Amino acid sequence: MARFRTAGTSRPVASDAFVFFGATGDLAFKQIFPALAGLIRDDDWTLPIIGLARHGDLAALRERASQSLAAHGMTDPAVLRHLHARLRFVRGSDDDVDTFRRLRAELGTARHPLHYLAIPPADFGAVVTLLGESRCADGARVIVEKPFGRNLADARRLNATLHTVFDEARIFRIDHYLGKEPVQNLLYFRFANRFLEPIWNANHVASVQVTMAETLDVAGRGAFYDGVGAIRDVVQNHILQTVSILAMEPPSGHTAEALRNEKFKLLDSVRPLRPEEVVRGQYGGYRREPGVARDSNVETYVALRLRVDTWRWGGVPFFIRAGKCLPVSATEVVVELKRPPFDVFAERRPATANHLRFRLTPDMSISLVARAKKPGERMDGEEVELVAHHEVGTEVPPYQRLIGDAAEGDQMLFAREDTVEAAWRIVDPVLNLTAPPLRYRRGTWGPKAAEGLIPSSEQWFRPVPTRPEPEPGLLRPPTSRP
Ligand code: BG6
To answer: 175, 406, 425, 443: least surrounded by Cβ within 10 Å?
Structure first.
């Protein structure tokens, strides 16, 4: 698999077994089995795959794998056969010494297993300790799932627990946004092109907006979501990771650490949020969702304003919003440039500013919205969107990409300890706000108060529903502003 890797850097040792805790759980069904099948299909994965769970046996695990692949439309019988052939099962509980002794026996000659903790963070401590004591952690790597803690103090505790057995180079913290092709393309587009750099700063950029809109409600995950809320669920991780890629300085080398150093520096320079910089919302009917407290004050929507204290971004506001039950499902980054310093054409309607739009989900596009003259006698223009790149549905699914990378020891797309903690530091002051969130109707763009976060001369950009694929370079009328 092609990876970001330095020519000349010694190749890390590849993992020789894959172990997943929580083998009968939701995450295994929704993400891990399809990812493993994808690795077998695309990368000829031959690693033994060992599932651990409290109940069941190998036959039941194979059946669960079959159901998962069927549910994901992965119908190739050869792939399923290979997956079944590689599967092994260890039954036992996560805090039982004997389970780990049997795991070590099942690992056989494997010396570099990759352990995936697809279990609640509260169980990490026991598992990590027993992995260490049973020697299953020798030469091993570990993948941990988000949410990585509930706040800064908790994340620090979790990191300390992991470090009792695994050093940082062997810990892979998953944020599936980093495995998404359009997020990698954001990184690529920024640093593989020279033309952006002169304008990518406070001299030319007026503001940055990130919108992560979802039409879905909590979709049966009420019990989980009600202990989390939008800030913990997507802002602390997916959105701040995206912001770090968008705004960081160019990495000073080719290694994962060079990139991760710059991401840390950027997040470390973001001011901790103040309550007045945040608008929280809750969609009508949320409190009636199964698993949700009837008096829940958890936010299903958040809009906020970030301040980045660097020379490059001083004074440029970063507006972020994310929510469930919004009118469309789409994640977009919009970088709005300043207006021309003088209005040469004295147009009847003042010209709008140029902006770059990075569409990250559900499809991928990068476009520049600019002004072009409307045909006719007057020097009047309109906005047109120059599409630089547009693709739908060709990417390797994020979990496949990330598990494959972890097995090869490539940390480029994983969140480092300091970055995760820096992100918690930003949101920590607004995690426990006592004011109830503002109500908004399903299918609307959230509470009106969010408009007050941005200056009256500006507006939130609205992502549009998925569009038919245009030809690259096509000029067309732009997408909507309200
Ligand atoms: C997950 C959140 O991490 O990301 C979900 O827990 C959210 O609430 C999801 O819906 C969004 O990811 P994607 O890949 O569907 O954009």
So the answer is: 443
